[in-house]
Write a structure and sequence with these properties.
InterPro entries: FAD/NAD-bd_sf, FAD/NAD-binding_dom. The chain is an alpha/beta fold. It has helices spanning 26-38, 57-60, 74-78, 130-146, 157-169, 191-203, 216-226; strands at 2-5, 8-11, 19-22, 42-46, 50-52, 71-73, 82-84, 87-91, 96-99, 104-106, 109-112, 149-153, 174-179, 207-210, 235-239. The chain has two domains: 19-112, FAD/NAD(P)-binding domain (3-Layer(bba) Sandwich), CATH 3.50.50; 147-239, FAD/NAD(P)-binding domain (3-Layer(bba) Sandwich). A hairpin with a 4-residue loop joins strand 8 (87-91) and strand 9.
């Protein structure tokens, strides 16, 4: 039995228990570590082979070698309690989880921690191998380094951070952020925080095009702006819109 007590989960073992955790994000690994500390049998299932600390993902997009620090292989932490695979079906009656390929994992208790999704580079959910994901980040670092100008599409929290990371690491580059609303960052944030985010970008000399819908017609105008200095520069477009 699992009981919520404040910020902790009180676990009372009654009979044979095997917990299956679907998803190895922040919630999944927290559940796994707690079960591990209590000696309770469990299996953590994730399509990837490593936990990704995606809070630092955008820094890994501009700084070579940083991505290596943002991945922790599940097997190193959970050993045989980790199974890599994609869950395709749940059967609550039979208490089984079916993986792609037909394998079944039985459980007495099920924890679903499938997390959220989003575009690269904010997330790296499309790569099942963390080594491949690291290489993907190294590739975008090279693209940023080689670009004369960077266009960031989307002025939510991810877009704001992406523009700031590029301009902080490479202050000589031209960075343009285009957003469909006048205010930057997520609407759940306080107006003062959103205003401060805009001020920081302006201080870093990020060009802001606000209130323009990110459609191809407008993108064409933006690209014309990026190349208006004469010679056509190497330009990179980073989409942060889901």
């Amino acid at each position: 039995m699992f009981r919520k007590m404040g910020g902790q989960v009180s676990i009372e073992i009654q009979g044979e228990v095997h917990v299956v955790i679907v998803g190895g994000g922040f919630g999944g690994i927290a559940a796994g570590r707690q079960l591990q500390s209590k000696g309770i049998p469990f299996t953590l299932i994730d399509v990837r082979d490593a936990f990704h600390h995606n809070v630092a993902a955008l820094r890994a997009s501009v700084q070579s070698g940083f991505a290596q620090q943002t991945f922790i292989p599940y097997a190193e932490t959970f050993g045989e309690s980790f199974r890599q695979g994609r869950v395709v079906r749940l059967d609550p009656a039979a208490k089984t989880v079916m993986l792609e390929g037909g394998q079944e994992v039985h459980y007495t208790h099920l924890i679903l921690c499938t997390g959220s999704d989003g575009p690269f580079p904010g997330k790296a959910n499309t790569e099942s191998s963390y080594r491949a994901a690291i290489q993907k980040y190294e590739d975008i670092v090279k693209e940023v380094q080689q670009a004369d100008s960077v266009l960031v599409i989307g002025g939510g929290s991810t877009g704001v951070e992406m523009a700031a990371e590029v301009k902080t690491e490479y202050p000589e580059k031209k960075v343009v952020l285009i957003h469909s609303h006048v205010a930057l960052a997520d609407p759940e944030l306080l107006p003062s925080v959103r205003k401060q985010a805009q001020e920081v970008l302006l201080e870093k000399r990020v060009e802001l095009l606000l209130g323009n819908l990110p459609q191809w017609g407008i993108l064409g105008a933006v690209l014309e702006l990026l190349t208006s200095s004469g010679d056509v520069p190497k330009r990179l477009i980073i989409n942060t819109i889901m």
